[in-house]
Amino acid sequence: MNKFDFFYPRSRYRGEFIPEHIAFNLHLQYFAHQVSLLCGLQTNGKVAPSDAYHRLVELWQQFEEYTALNLGDLNSHQSTLDQIEIEEV
Questions:
Q1: CA dihedral 50, 51, 57, 61 (to 10 degrees)
Q2: Domain tally for the chain?
Q3: What is the distance, to the nearest Å, from the Cα of residue 87 to the centroid of all Cα atoms in its chain?
Q4: Partner of 67 at 20 to 30 A CA spacing, among 30, 49, 76, 89?
Q5: Is 35 inside any structural domain?
Q6: For residue 16, which phi and psi values (nearest 5 degrees)?
Q7: Which superkingdom does the taxonomy of this entry point to (predicted)?
Q8: pLDDT tens digits for 19-36?
Q9: Cα separation of 56 and 63, whole Å?
Q10: pLDDT at 18 over 70
Q11: Could you tell me the residue range of the domain that residue 58 belongs to?
């Protein structure tokens, strides 16, 4: 594992390969990664709690702005999870 992979982990997208879903997943992973880094910095005393809070608010607003762009109705495609019948064990 190199340093880049350690600091910027990525997960494969396993949903339907629809451009809107892939773009949403990309933005969601970026948001989650930034929140994780910010939490680590604040926990270790590198960032003040108030600064961390304000940065979290900024990150959330950026994520909301993206979801408001309506790049495609994310709910227009039936989720594969809705199609899967869960077997009782």
A1: 160
A2: 1
A3: 29
A4: 49
A5: no
A6: -65, 140
A7: Bacteria
A8: 888 888 888 889 999 999
A9: 11
A10: yes
A11: 51-76
* Type of residue found at 61: Q
Sign of the alpha-carbon dihedral angle for 39, 42, 47, 52: positive
- Residue 65: C-alpha distances to residues 38, 69, 70 (Å): 20, 7, 10
Q: Are 47 and 41 in contact (CB under 8 A)?
A: yes
Query: Hey, what are 67's tokens?
Result: 């979801």
Would you tell me how many other CB atoms lie within 10 Å of the CB of residue 69? 9
pLDDT tens digit sequence for 23-81 = 888 888 899 999 999 999 999 999 999 999 999 999 999 999 888 876 555 555 444 44
The tokens of 74 are what? 């994310």
